[in-house]
Amino acid sequence: MGDETLAQIKQVGSTVDPWDLDRFQKVAKALFLLGVHFPFWRDWRFADSSIFLVLEILHFIHKFFFNHVLQWCKEIALLWWCLAHQTDDGEGTSDDCLHVIDFMYQSQSPIQTDSSIAQMESSLKDDFLVPKLELLLSFASAVQNNGGLIQYTADVSEWLLITHCKNTFRQTNKNKDFTMQVVCILDREESMQSFDMYTLMCSNNISLLNIIKTEAEDVSANNPVLDWVSCVLPEEQQKIQGPHPCRNYFAGVLLSNNAETALHVTRRPDQTNLTINAIAAMYHLVDFPEEYSRFLGLYGADVELTWRIFDCITIWHKFQVQLHSVFCPSMIMPSQVVQAKPPSDDFPLGCGDVVVVKAGDDSTSYIAQVRMVFQPCPPPCSRVQIPSYLTQPLLYVQPFHVALTPNEQPELDGQVTHEGRVIPLAFVSHAIELVPIFGPSPVPPTVTAAMSQEVYDQFFLNHYGDKETYNMIHGMEFF
């Protein structure tokens, strides 16, 4: 490929004087050349520019999306509007946009296999052979020759250019020696950070010898300085600037059934000593007592006796969900908060986030909205032995069902039921997001993000939240 390019440049140079820039550029552009007479790699004997000049994620993916794909979506009104209406013009265009977005997410994967490369190629449709998109067809060969393209992204260097050059340049007097001034400013900042660390350690009589923290082997993406400070002086770590390590909930005792998800509730609940009927009235859930009794019956419990003994209900308004990275299983991701708040002035219909529920390895997954987090407890100072199925918090959830749209099955329109069920917290697999299908009518001004999941009945599953979420749930089937 490189030899062919050099041969074409030589052919153009033999017919047109390369120093006649205007004519040389016109002839070169006609052959799809850039018009460079002496490429810098021309005398690299064993180099092939088509291999070592890799496609760059920041410009070819991110900026391409905002400059082109996003504009396409705006020109067809809104992407989700077109999907909801399924118009003849919007349906094909919006599907094409989704294919491009799928390709962009797949191309950024740090780990690529033959199957993932084939899936990435299949996301580009045949009718995308246009100049702006044809370049994307070379991503597969670039990955096969150089590995994951995300490792070559200019995002890191571009950000360093902002923080260490542009921002620092504004602090100089902008004379000719601004380069030395920038270096001096950066050197002083580093010296002050080192001095702050030294004085912090000395003032607390902490040894300056590094301490190996076993937990850091699992949370491998931490700042080593902050990780050390959090170990030897946890109460002082807020004095050190930088990305603080995420808390490792996998070290706790509450894990999902497949042990791939860590779950956490605070030691101090939000409310205690409540009754089942009081909670049902607080959350406006009329079927909660019935579903709670049904849950107890599944474990062969004496429902009436259990109601009487464990009559002190504790509730939480939220819990944490933490996962390992899809691409690097040794790395723990920051936890996500799943809220389950009762109706209030801020949330007139309550606030319940959405999770994926999976009872076991062989069971199917389904999507549900968490409406309540609770745990039945015996009275204080009671010696009653707590059964195993009540030793962890429980959830009251309302599942979403995968169904045909009213256009495909008109009898479904208007027949919406909110069926609830009680499940153990360990059934939660991970948290996800839903996007309401707003439909053809305008959105009422009274509808807010706090109540959209209660007002609307049909949703899209948003698997484009981030790359981890995309690769985690892309291709999953829900029932």
UniProtKB/TrEMBL annotation:
<protein>
    <recommendedName>
        <fullName>DUF6830 domain-containing protein</fullName>
    </recommendedName>
</protein>
<dbReference type="InterPro" id="IPR041078">
    <property type="entry name" value="Plavaka"/>
</dbReference>
<dbReference type="Pfam" id="PF20722">
    <property type="entry name" value="DUF6830"/>
</dbReference>
<dbReference type="Pfam" id="PF18759">
    <property type="entry name" value="Plavaka"/>
</dbReference>
<feature type="domain" description="DUF6830">
    <location>
        <begin position="258"/>
        <end position="361"/>
    </location>
</feature>
<dbReference type="InterPro" id="IPR049233">
    <property type="entry name" value="DUF6830"/>
</dbReference>
